[in-house]
Amino acid sequence: MSTSAPPVVAAPPTHYENFPVASWLCPPRLRPPIAAIYVFARTADDIADEGDAGPAQRLDELRAFRTDLAAVARGMAPSPRWPQVFGPLAHAMQAFALPEQLLADLLSAFMQDIEKTRDRAGYANRVELLDYCRRSANPVGRLLLHLYGVNDERALRQSDAICSALQLINFWQDLSVDLPRGRYYLPRDDCAEHGLTASSFETFRPLGATPAPAKAIALVASLVKWSRELMNEGAPLVHALPGRAGWELRFVVQGGRRILDKIEALGCDTFAARPTVGKADAPVLAWRALRMRRQSPA
């Protein structure tokens, strides 16, 4: 496989993301591999989640996607099905020695999403949910650290904490979207502590039609608190990354915290509305990013 010049990277789809995608703060030489990782993950996520295919077909598609990943990781030609994915990714893997396992972990999480939606089992507790985050979110941070040449254990742990927090925040932000689609990320143990079960949420659908009960609001509030603590645990990483990378991460951390603020401003009722961060939030994010100090997690 020729590696004389990097292939053209197609513009990534315009889906909402909590993760940065080759922004202006990113060094130009790293934009192509970051975009390649994003297109890989976004395409796989769409296979798992978009369109009218049934669960079995989606799983078959992801297995084929995994086979192509294995091929390019070994310098072999992939199938012709996803050239916009595996052309750029093959170059990035060879040029930057991207670890195949981290990319494969993302696919395993997407496959788990399909299985969990199909059997409606959900997650028993926070440990199980964090294991899902380990594969669905943490690889993104570890891949970025790999590109920046950061590989010490403390930085990796902090990156995992930030990425898991972002994934959890996305869950609590998206309850009004996920629950009607059969995506259930509320840990059963936490639900039980508040006197709730998976079937409890059927009683106030369509979501937002009636106020969520107080115990459901209390559940979300406790999960928001957990997510904020996890984000605070990882936040010191912003001071360990060099130059632009550190500033990029400051905005990521503050973006996640801003969503948590907005969830709390809604009274933790994201069963009725989905808070987002937009251009109007930019001054607040910039001010908070600037004020991040080594001695302060907030």
Care to describe what's here?
The protein is mainly α and 298 residues long. The chain folds into 2 domains: 27-119, no CATH class; 123-292, Farnesyl Diphosphate Synthase (Orthogonal Bundle). It has helices at 31-49, 55-73, 83-96, 100-119, 126-136, 138-148, 153-173, 175-178, 188-193, 214-234, 243-265, 282-291. The longest helix has 23 residues, at 243-265. The termini are far apart. Residues 1-16 and 18-22 have low confidence and may be disordered.
Describe this protein with a few key phrases.
298 residues; mainly alpha; Farnesyl Diphosphate Synthase; 2 domains; 12 helices; 60% helix; 0% strand; disordered N terminus
The gist of it:
With 298 residues, the chain is mostly helical. It has helices spanning 31-49, 55-73, 83-96, 100-119, 126-136, 138-148, 153-173, 175-178, 188-193, 214-234, 243-265, 282-291.
Number of strands: 0
Would you tell me the structural class of the helices and strands? Answer: mainly alpha
Q: SSE order in H/E notation?
A: HHHHHHHHHHHH
Our estimate of the beta-strand percent is under 5%
CATH structural architecture of the largest domain:
Orthogonal Bundle
Write down the overall mean pLDDT.
Answer: 86
Distance between the terminal alpha carbons, to the nearest Å?
48 Å
Rough outline: globular
Number of individual domains: 2
Radius of gyration: 20 Å
